[in-house]
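ugh ok fine here u go
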Amino acid sequence: MVLSGGTLVAAQTVIARAEGSITQGSLLQGDAAAADGESGNNIDGAVNLLLVGIDAREEGSSVTSVLSDTIIILHIPETHDQAYLISIPRDWRVEMPPYEKVGFVGATGKINSAFSFGYENGGTELEKRSNGMAVLSNTLNKITGIKFNGAAIIDFSGFESVIHAMGGVDMCVDEEAESAHLGVDADGKLVQGWYSETYGIQLPPGVKPLVHKKGCRKMSSTEALDYARIRKSLSDGDYGRQRHQQQLIKAIAKQATSTGVLTDLGKLDGLTKAAGEAFVLDTGGIPPADFIFTLKGVAANDLMLIKTNAGNLNSITVDGQSFEQLDGESMDMLSAAKNGTLGTFLIEHPQFIAKSN
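structure:
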């Protein structure tokens, strides 16, 4: 959030305020971790960061595992003047390598379950999240060869608190979408519901599902997070959901680095406090301020949104279960991210670029 739009001094101010409150842990272990960067003000070469959003349940619930519902690779080429958000389909069928630390022997299944295999093996909440990220990042490394310079985890409630601290976020709805989690009562107030695979959204009597109409407007934190989670009512399903999540990240970057936030100390403190409580961050031993210095030339408008399979569903069925499969061109795209040639690949394959709003 602190990469775009502001001066270096403003960015350093933000990171100085946030660094003391953000939970930092060792999320990248094994082959997935890049070699330690050289200490200093600038990070050499391309940068790959793994961003994961999880649907964590309230403490004390019966749910003992967590899926990584959002998996994004943030790729910055060695020129450090552009950034690419690559969304990984949650239903991608992959082979997950063993992770002896938690007794995981390996498995084949949907990639969003990789996080859960590490998470569910005990320890503190931070240890469980770190183990979950280790299994997921090692899986991606085995398939793509990408080594990550850093990683971050945020849960949905944390995401909501960050947006709330900014006073909402500007979003453009590109397709009318019906919520699977929120309703509207007769007075126009939002009502939280719950989703059933069998019966759809469940709401109190007299409450209708919230419908996000086409057009641009400022959304509250509740509305923005809900919009970014919808997939069932979209014409392109999970690919639409991925696109909207990327658009939300870009919108947050713009809002967080706007003059109205960076020059308002009260709002800035609220934002950094919310971010500190929402994130678990691993910068691979490199001071966060060095990332800020290195990426100071990347503005929010330089975030390019990328879709696998050019946004087309490529489903397969195995033992009665539906999965997503990445085609050869998508694997070539991930190889380009690994080799630092993603910009060239996208010039030759513009169909992989998603709409930014």
